């Protein structure tokens, strides 16, 4: 376009109307064409990523067949039935070979993936790692244990997609710190697992690799954002996985899939080498942590990770080794508890799980003390939502440039991308009718200035001080409380992000928190759900009721919380709950 014609477009008074119309039409057509070209490029990138995944899974199948031929006498069902502690003992004693264990889990992972679509990549370096293990004189704490890794945690030679097109094609040149430490301890990372687009969602779907299903009920979500981990471990295709958590992303899939999961204190484990759409956000603490079928597996993983190797690779991690004495202690505990937080009414099974666990703990000789988290509405709206979206969700919206929004995220994304003025106006209109939704819309506008961001950080610190003071006043060791559940029906998580209130509180506080399954949904729970109204009677309450319907027989969990840097005490409490709920013995 010449300068003269461009000027005519910019200043219509100089242009002939027909010329102007033609120019505008051609410009509009150019925009449409560019969009179509952009979408085509996006589609090509996604197609290429899917082809790469298919080739990786074919390679995994061939490797599994080869290992099976070389270990024809392997008792796969026996290996898959062992706990991780038992498996480590047999591997170290030599009664099982790392090859036979890896083959067993590779084969099972492929089977589970065909059923629920949870694996995004095969970490082919695991075959070479097997050979390296044989040369090592000292056997690490996780010697020969196959481990699954959440998609966004870097593994050398593989992409970390984050479920987004913008990260495709970026092959990582080195392992994340946590993967390096796992390998140092003899573990064998062998697959990467699926996540929701952006990971700011607790379903598990993206347009690159598709929807992951819950292996316990395919009509249900496995949770997220560590949903691929939850599905694979619950399906029996992995014995230990590494996830991440910024609002409940380890604890929610653990709850939905009937697993144990631990969200540590923010910097207890290195986060170096993980992709995130929220780099720079400091108001709410994200962290990496383990997921497994039992608490002893989590404890062994933490013990293995908290070693000199991690402290050297990442000097920002406090050099605090795992305290075995605290974990194995049998001293009676002072336990604070609450059955609901006042922001979202718990489902009947959530409430019953806490009541049942509280009674078991009391009968076992522990002291149970009622506790109410202070100012929960303020925490969820002003500290969590306004904190995690302190930029008005600008970074997250920018991530979608050159991408297509997954249907499971559309409800969230459409709200995030509204101009701040529209959000504020809607908040004013909705305040008399739906005050909770109005507060959420206002919080999504962010903080507005650097000064306000400082104030927001100060408010988080002040709330943490207030919370700890109340904890100390009651002389608590730990807290027992609900975790969101049971597993949601598909399509609801993206419409109920604020329902993470039970878990996101402990990201704001930066306290270690873990999840333990204690029961299953009963027909009585389902019947009681028919009378569920919620605290506000707004569309969110109606959606939550719909989300958890039809869950009879699915797992129900509780959440166990300790003060910062007390992961060992948190795990000890989780083990106590597990032992009482399931009658298991301590296996340390």
TrEMBL record:
<dbReference type="GO" id="GO:0009062">
    <property type="term" value="P:fatty acid catabolic process"/>
</dbReference>
<dbReference type="InterPro" id="IPR052096">
    <property type="entry name" value="Endocannabinoid_amidase"/>
</dbReference>
<dbReference type="InterPro" id="IPR023631">
    <property type="entry name" value="Amidase_dom"/>
</dbReference>
<dbReference type="InterPro" id="IPR036928">
    <property type="entry name" value="AS_sf"/>
</dbReference>
<dbReference type="GO" id="GO:0017064">
    <property type="term" value="F:fatty acid amide hydrolase activity"/>
</dbReference>
<keyword id="KW-0443">Lipid metabolism</keyword>
<comment type="similarity">
    <text>Belongs to the amidase family.</text>
</comment>
<feature type="binding site">
    <location>
        <position position="199"/>
    </location>
    <ligand>
        <name>substrate</name>
    </ligand>
</feature>
<dbReference type="InterPro" id="IPR020556">
    <property type="entry name" value="Amidase_CS"/>
</dbReference>
<feature type="active site" description="Charge relay system">
    <location>
        <position position="150"/>
    </location>
</feature>
<dbReference type="GO" id="GO:0004040">
    <property type="term" value="F:amidase activity"/>
</dbReference>
<feature type="active site" description="Charge relay system">
    <location>
        <position position="225"/>
    </location>
</feature>
<feature type="active site" description="Acyl-ester intermediate">
    <location>
        <position position="249"/>
    </location>
</feature>
<dbReference type="Pfam" id="PF01425">
    <property type="entry name" value="Amidase"/>
</dbReference>
<protein>
    <recommendedName>
        <fullName>Fatty-acid amide hydrolase 1</fullName>
        <ecNumber>3.5.1.99</ecNumber>
    </recommendedName>
</protein>
<feature type="domain" description="Amidase">
    <location>
        <begin position="101"/>
        <end position="571"/>
    </location>
</feature>
<keyword id="KW-0597">Phosphoprotein</keyword>
<keyword id="KW-0378">Hydrolase</keyword>
<feature type="binding site">
    <location>
        <position position="225"/>
    </location>
    <ligand>
        <name>substrate</name>
    </ligand>
</feature>
<keyword id="KW-0442">Lipid degradation</keyword>
<feature type="binding site">
    <location>
        <begin position="246"/>
        <end position="249"/>
    </location>
    <ligand>
        <name>substrate</name>
    </ligand>
</feature>
């Amino acid at each position: 376009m010449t300068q003269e014609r461009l000027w005519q477009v910019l200043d219509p008074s100089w242009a002939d109307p027909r010329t102007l119309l033609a120019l505008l039409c051609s410009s509009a057509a150019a925009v449409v064409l560019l969009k179509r070209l952009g979408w085509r490029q996006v589609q090509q990138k996604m197609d290429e990523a899917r082809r790469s995944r298919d080739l990786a899974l074919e390679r995994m199948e061939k490797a599994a067949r080869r290992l099976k031929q070389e270990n024809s006498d392997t008792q796969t069902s026996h290996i898959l039935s062992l706990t991780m502690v038992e498996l480590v003992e047999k591997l170290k004693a030599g009664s099982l070979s790392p090859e036979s264990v890896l083959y067993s889990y590779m084969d099972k992972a492929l089977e589970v993936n065909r059923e629920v679509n949870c694996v995004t990549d095969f970490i082919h370096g695991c075959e070479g790692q097997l050979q390296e293990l044989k040369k090592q004189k000292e056997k690490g704490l996780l010697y020969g244990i196959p481990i699954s890794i959440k998609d966004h945690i870097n593994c050398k030679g593989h992409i970390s997609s984050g479920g987004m097109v913008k990260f495709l094609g970026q092959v990582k040149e080195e392992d994340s710190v946590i993967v390096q430490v796992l390998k140092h301890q003899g573990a064998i990372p062998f697959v990467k697992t699926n996540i929701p687009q952006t990971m700011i969602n607790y379903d598990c779907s993206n347009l690159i690799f598709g929807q992951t299903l819950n292996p316990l009920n395919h009509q249900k979500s496995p949770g997220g954002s560590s949903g691929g981990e939850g599905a694979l471990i619950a399906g029996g295709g992995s014995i230990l996985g590494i996830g991440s958590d910024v609002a409940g992303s380890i604890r929610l899939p653990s709850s939905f899939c009937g697993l144990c999961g631990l969200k540590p204190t923010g910097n207890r484990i290195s986060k170096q080498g993980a992709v995130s759409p929220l780099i720079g956000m400091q108001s709410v603490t994200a962290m990496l942590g383990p997921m497994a079928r039992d608490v002893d597996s989590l404890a062994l993983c933490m013990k293995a990770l908290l070693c000199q190797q991690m402290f050297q690779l990442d000097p920002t991690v406090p050099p605090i080794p795992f305290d075995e004495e605290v974990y194995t202690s049998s001293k009676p505990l002072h336990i604070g508890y609450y059955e609901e937080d006042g922001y979202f009414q718990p489902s009947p099974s959530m409430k019953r799980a806490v009541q049942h666990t509280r009674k078991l703990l009391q009968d076992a000789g522990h002291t149970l003390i009622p506790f109410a988290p202070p100012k929960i509405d303020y925490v969820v709206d002003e500290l969590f939502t306004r904190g995690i979206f302190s930029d008005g969700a600008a970074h997250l919206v920018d991530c979608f440039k050159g991408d297509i929004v997954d249907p499971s995220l559309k409800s969230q994304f459409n709200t995030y991308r509204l101009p701040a003025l529209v959000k504020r106006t809607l908040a004013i209109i909705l305040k008399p009718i739906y005050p909770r939704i109005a507060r959420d819309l206002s919080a999504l506008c962010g903080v507005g200035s650097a000064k306000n961001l400082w104030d927001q950080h100060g408010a988080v610190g002040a709330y943490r001080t207030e919370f700890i003071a109340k904890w100390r006043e009651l002389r608590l060791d730990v807290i027992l409380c609900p975790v969101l559940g049971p597993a949601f029906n598909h399509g609801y998580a993206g419409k109920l992000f604020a329902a993470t209130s039970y878990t996101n509180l402990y990201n704001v506080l930066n306290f270690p928190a873990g999840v333990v399954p204690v029961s299953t949904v009963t027909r009585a729970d389902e019947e009681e759900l028919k009378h569920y109204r919620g605290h506000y009677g707004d569309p969110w309450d109606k959606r939550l009721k719909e989300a958890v319907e039809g869950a009879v027989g699915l797992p129900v969990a509780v959440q166990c919380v300790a003060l910062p840097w007390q992961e060992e005490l948190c795990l000890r409490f989780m083990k106590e709950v597990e032992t009482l709920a399931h009658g298991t013995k301590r296996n340390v």
